[in-house]
Amino acid sequence: MKEEDVRDKVMRILFDNFGERNTWEGEGKFTRFKLRSEFGASECKAEHAINYKLPNGSTLSHESDIFIGEESLGKCVSLEIKHESAVTDQFKARCYDIIHMRNTYGKSLLTIMLFVKVPSKGISIENAREICYAFDHLFGIPLTSLDNQKEWSKLTSIIGGFLRLRD
């Protein structure tokens, strides 16, 4: 299984939980769908770029593995996926972007790192959690548990709670 396979699986889970029927478009990194009305008038997109500002005023772009929402609507989710990673620098680079994205978007942005841990490969979930301190949430899921619905329920609950429109 590759990281893009995990992304595609997560997109399907998100669609099943938040998607408006008959709005699924594309495949792979071109997948997108509209959210049901109770989650706002926005979309979920694979591989979406979001700009952020640096302290010196210049702007950089970050490519979220999965992005939910519209920056202009005030609520969005950036979900990063790491799979079978043995290199801490990959986590550190994403954390750098998240720190600056948080400074740019504040509480209107929910940041999540999803780390699919392959047994006996890569860094530990605990090490990933320490590096990714700037993320709102880090979900560590063992590769052997990817098909376990219970593993996904906390993730979808947090995203749904953040996006759900309040009366």
Describe this structure in words.
There is one protein chain. By secondary structure, the chain is of the alpha/beta class. The chain has one domain (3-20, 32-163): Trna Endonuclease, Chain: A, domain 1 (3-Layer(aba) Sandwich), CATH 3.40.1350. 34% of the residues lie in helices and 30% in strands. The chain has four helices and six strands; from the N terminus they run αββββαβαβα. The chain has a six-stranded mixed beta sheet. 33% of the residues are buried.
Write the layout of secondary structure elements.
Elements: H1 3-18, E1 32-34, E2 43-53, E3 59-70, E4 75-83, H2 88-105, E5 109-117, H3 125-131, E6 137-142, H4 149-163
Parallel strand pairs: 4-5, 5-6
Antiparallel strand pairs: 1-2, 2-3, 3-4
Class from helix and strand fractions: alpha/beta
Q: What amount of the residues lies in strands?
A: 25-35%
Question: What is the ordering of alpha helices and beta strands?
Answer: HEEEEHEHEH
Q: Calculate the mean pLDDT score and round it.
A: 90
| Number of helical segments with 4 or more residues | 4
**Biggest beta sheet summary:** 6 strands, mixed
Catalogue the unreliable spans. Answer: none
CATH architectural arrangement: 3-Layer(aba) Sandwich
In short:
The chain is of the alpha/beta class and 167 residues long.
